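pinging the channel bc i need a second pair of eyes. not urgent but kinda urgent?? the chain im working w is below, pasted from the shared doc
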Amino acid sequence: MANHKSALKRARQNEIRSMRNKTVKTKVKNLVKDVRLAAGKEPEEKVLIKLTQAQSIIDKAAKKGTIHKKTASRKISRLAGLVNSTTL
């Protein structure tokens, strides 16, 4: 474990941030899963609502630095493509 005061503080910050990142990543995974499962089964309106919610959460995760900007863009693009292919 760290000995210096600044190193101890950095360790505390890292722990808090890793917990926050973990919750955000879990939320993103669950929303992506919900959209994928709903894409073929639920009505178009519900799927589009879920898609916009997922896009919002993914964008916020990228803005906070939890996931990379290009990773967020790729996830959103793939979800939108899936929804568009199933709703047409």
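so The domain at 5-87 is CATH 1.20.58.110 (Methane Monooxygenase Hydroxylase; Chain G, domain 1). and The chain has one domain: 5-87. — does that match what u expected or am i reading it wrong
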